[in-house]
UniProtKB/TrEMBL annotation:
Keyword Coiled coil: no
Protein name in UniProt: Solute-binding protein family 3/N-terminal domain-containing protein
Pfam families from the UniProt entry: SBP_bac_3
Gene3D superfamilies: Periplasmic binding protein-like II
Keywords of this entry: Signal
Superkingdom of this protein's organism: Bacteria
Matching InterPro entries: Solute-binding_3/MltF_N
Species: Thalassospira lohafexi
Signal peptide, first to last residue: 1-35
Solute-binding protein family 3/N-terminal domain boundaries: 48-278
Length: 280
């Protein structure tokens, strides 16, 4: 019996050695992978939830839009980051950014009075801000200079947006223009088409996307005219202050993002993503 046991020991020892060697090999391969995974930084970018076609939630509640596609494509080139999007109404997003509760928000325009925004990304997309009005209002008014020639008009506006400019909002404060605000482009377009307001200011492609969402046909669209080009604006990712140090990686992420966005702009990739979006 003893000799049998003695003869079995070397076999057991051989198996154990082989298993040990296999285990060491697995560890030598997997440890770097684990370390690499631990080095990936989770990043949350907050965007608008109802700014079609730029940043919104689709029918399934998933982040969608041109900026979402561009930023996802950019961070895909930055494997050191794991990106997640969260979408909220514009005004809430800006309030959260100002109070330091979120790291970043997109795609606000650059405004001097937002001195609580510590830094912006490089410009991402150029957008054209326009005023549109009902055909009846256009035919009954001489509209040459915005906003001076719109005295007495009733305007719709997306809550929190300042696209119409300071002169416009000075006229609102003086009671020379009446302003009604809703959270979505579609709601404001409904106000306009129902005659509840005379005019509406927003970015041109956002208006077109809203009309498409409402299934406005050509006959209906003839009752709306573009009356003024207010200006060209760029959309950005805005980064607020971080006094509590919640996001120690913020500046490195912002720098890396800028580098990639510049490359995408210079190679035409951003333009291609926009074309593909509207062809989808």
């Amino acid at each position: 019996m003893k000799p049998n046991r003695i003869r079995k020991h070397p076999a057991k020892a051989t198996v154990t050695a082989a298993a040990l060697a296999s285990w060491v090999l697995v560890q030598s391969v997997s440890v770097p992978s684990i370390a690499a995974a631990q080095d990936v930084i989770p990043v949350v970018l907050h965007g608008e939830d109802n700014n079609k076609p730029y940043a919104f939630l689709d029918a399934d509640g998933a982040p969608a839009g041109i900026y979402v596609r561009i930023l996802q494509a950019a961070v895909d080139k930055m494997p050191q980051y794991d990106l997640r999007f969260e979408n909220v109404p514009f005004k809430r997003g800006m309030d959260l950014l100002q109070s330091g509760q979120i790291m970043a928000f997109f795609p606000p325009y650059l405004r001097d009075d937002r001195n609580w925004v510590e830094r912006y990304s490089v410009p991402i997309l150029s957008e054209t801000v326009v005023a549109i009005c009902s055909k009846d209002y256009v035919l009954s008014h001489d509209l040459r200079v915005f906003p001076d020639d719109f005295t007495g008009a009733r305007f719709a506006n997306n809550a929190g947006y300042r696209l119409a400019g300071e002169d416009f909002f000075d006229m609102v404060a003086a009671g020379e223009i009446t302003l009604e605000e809703a959270n979505t482009t579609e709601s404001n377009l409904r106000f306009l088409m129902a005659g509840r307001v005379d005019c509406y200011v927003n970015e041109r492609m956002a208006i077109l996307a809203g009309l498409r969402e409402l299934a406005v046909d050509k006959e209906q669209s003839r009752n709306i005219d573009e009356t003024a080009i207010i200006g060209q604006e760029f959309g950005y990712v805005a980064f607020g202050y971080d006094p509590a140090g919640y996001w120690p990686y913020r500046d490195q992420f912002a720098n890396d993002l800028d580098d990639v966005l510049r490359q995408m702009r210079d190679t035409g990739e951003i333009d291609q993503l926009v074309v593909e979006y509207f062809a989808y």
